[in-house]
Amino acid sequence: MDVKALKAAHKLLAEYKYEPAKLKKGYTDKTLYINIGDNRIEAKDVPASMKEKFIGGKGYGLKYLWDATTPETKWNDPENEIVIAGGPLCGITQYPGAGKSLVVTISPMTDIPIDSNVGGYFGPYLKFSGWDALEIQGKAKEDIIIYIDGNNGVIRIDEAPLEAIDGHVVSEELTEMYADSEEDKKNISVISAGTAANHANIGLLNFSFYDIRRRVARLKQAGRGGIGRVLRDKKIKAIVIKFKGTKGDLNKPANQSLINKAGIKLHKQIHDYDDVQCRMRQIGTANIIEVMDEYDLLPTHNYQYGNHPDTHKIASNVFVEKYITQGMPDGCWFGCSLSCAKAADNFELKTGSYKGHKVTIDGPEYENAAGLGSNCGIFDPEMILEANFYCDTYGVDTISFGTICAFAMECYERGIINKEITGGLELKFGNAIAQLELLHQMSRGEGFGALIGLGVKQLKRIFVEEHGADPDFLNDIGMEQKGLEVSEYLPKESLAQQGGYGLTNKGPQHDEAWLIFMDMVNNQIPTFEDKAEALHYFPMFRTWFGLMGLCKLPWNDTSPPDNHLTDEPAKMPEHVQHYVNIYNGVTGSNIDKDELILQSERIYNFQRIFNIRRGKGLRKHDAMPYRAIGPVTFEEYESRKERYDQQLKDLLDYNPEGKTTEEKIKIMREYRLNQYELLTDAVYKRRGWTPNGVPTIEHLSKIGMELPELVEVVKNHI
Amino acid sequence: MIKVNSKDFEWEEGLTVQKLLDKKKYTFPKIYVTINGEIVEKEEYDITLIKDGDDVKVIHLLAGG
Ligand code: SF4
């Protein structure tokens, strides 16, 4: 890699010098605006009113995006922005999981704002460089790189014709280019996408952090909703930040000891109990592959079923024992003792543009193993790792890709599409080589792979319009909502989780609420009101991580040994108190756990109204495909006949004896769809919304969000 | 008949907590078990007998996300 030659080809388009603002109590109160259309770089002051209502992170992102766009702005219009922000807690090193960035843009998949929470060092370094947020607007004419030097206060926009586009290559090139030495590499973080993001709407962003032990730039992903596609549409190859001098107190907290106390307690708990709890340090989120299978929740064959006899081949131990090098814990920001990041080193690729290369692969996360693996009927760990690698480096959202592939495979097996349409690929469940070929095609923008990159919603339209498919059936089995693919849990037997997917702001991603155990297994939220309470509390609580720059895993993938003796074990009360304490410790405020929820509620409702402003965000947009709710096909019903027959008897007082499967499916469908409607009513009510899903003016006023621009939008719907 | 998480479950002679967990395929590591409101420690799952009519709760602690 001759980075000198790459650098020599750069052409400076703009340079901006600044005095990095000092951090105080978690904020600099300055944000950075870069317009790459006219090469304008400006500093903005954050007004006190914005700080009070929007807090930081995703709150700032949504606020800037609202101001920058109109209801008609499309994802590929120049005024669409990519906003990246940590939050007041982002960058602390005493408490696990405090290095996240939140990224917001208008999504090419959903045409509404998408937000994504991502690790890597960029978010903290941005703050330490003087900026609470970075807004990027406009479109460049040629490929560019944005470089922020946070120590010297220099920002450059360079035309950059020679650097690679694929994430793992460009991250290495730019880490090498901007670091003064090997030691200095840890001070660099690179945001990139990949070649598939040139074409595919499911393009993601890679955020790098340099792993000094492995001597490689590792990648974490802002996966959902196509933000990488927006980056590449703006002709940005990469955004690079450099900051030297990371220390624990750079946030200049108001009360360091509050933070330290919470940190010490959690570190000790993780040290003492993680090995018998979630084994996050050993295998990360993949620990639940086999658990989901046991509970009939692991999506297999496009969410038709919840388990598979071959799951043992991709169980977490297989990855630990055979592929994950160094059994040592691995964190994506300093001080995270939960350390769930994992990597397979020296993995030799068998296909594609990097065939024969030995690479480091981050993962697999649970979602990758389930999406790329079981949901597509693939139970070969090496193939899953290879697809995982290519998704990351080409810049493809593994969750969407897995779900789209599973959908296309089912369509193929049912004869809705054929080899002529797939360009010769035999797209049966289990065909891992065909799955990889789709990725390679996507990276070149060719063939059936290019269509896959458009997502399930577009594929359904194409299959209906061009190949005569039955639209009702495709709507039943195509696992997307609002244009975003469902993430990798089977929600059929948990009404609350159907709501956890459906009654969300950005689409069916499980990061608002994961209620399957509470609901289906523990039976702790039996009534509609109970479920509605959970679908109020958890989405609000989890929104808060996005305002702060925090990772959610240290909240509930480790628990205090006496958690079960508390009033509300599901909420992890001790951890909630830690969060209150570290927030007060950093910012000098004096909030309690209720005010924490109120902070989130303001942003949650703002995002809902942002959707409504764009002609979405109403009840009809919260409907789910029936595959998420109950058995669509004969085979699905028959595979769990005993369970479903029993439910017909117990819940509907309906005698299944002598009835055809089709009749039973019909009765079950009416019942389950009605349950979802009743749940929707209860949840909207609890959230202070009308039956059409619109926040009421009274509710906005109650939560201190009666802003004129919001009232203007909702009053047309009330 | 016993209750497991408020739902009916067939009782049998010699049913221990561990046997119940095996039968229900409750393999998730972060659980706690109560019988009639009393916590059963993990080390005692093998030796704790469940009586006919008991109210058993097996609470899986992975909530919210
Ligand atoms: S728990 Fe994992 S993802 Fe979260 S901050 Fe720690 S290492 Fe990163």
Automatic annotation (TrEMBL), chain A:
Keywords: 4Fe-4S, Iron, Iron-sulfur, Metal-binding, Oxidoreductase. SMART domains: AFOR_N. Its cofactor is [4Fe-4S] cluster; tungstopterin. One of its GO terms (molecular function) is electron transfer activity. Pfam families: AFOR_C, AFOR_N. Gene3D superfamilies: Aldehyde Ferredoxin Oxidoreductase Protein, subunit A, domain 2, Aldehyde Ferredoxin Oxidoreductase Protein, subunit A, domain 3, Aldehyde ferredoxin oxidoreductase, N-terminal domain. InterPro entries: Ald_Fedxn_OxRdtase_dom2, Ald_Fedxn_OxRdtase_dom3, Ald_Fedxn_OxRdtase_N, Ald_Fedxn_OxRdtase_N_sf, OxRdtase_Ald_Fedxn_C, Tungsten_al_ferr_oxy-like_C, W-dependent_AOR. Residues 27-247 form the Aldehyde ferredoxin oxidoreductase N-terminal domain. Signal peptide: none annotated. SUPFAM superfamilies: Aldehyde ferredoxin oxidoreductase, C-terminal domains, Aldehyde ferredoxin oxidoreductase, N-terminal domain. Belongs to the AOR/FOR family. This is Aldehyde:ferredoxin oxidoreductase. It comes from Alkaliphilus pronyensis.
UniProtKB/TrEMBL annotation, chain B:
Signal peptide: none annotated. InterPro entries: Beta-grasp_dom_sf, Mopterin_synth/thiamin_S_b, Thi_S, ThiS/MoaD-like. Coiled coil: none annotated. NCBIfam families: thiS. PANTHER family: SULFUR CARRIER PROTEIN THIS (PTHR34472:SF1). This is Sulfur carrier protein ThiS.
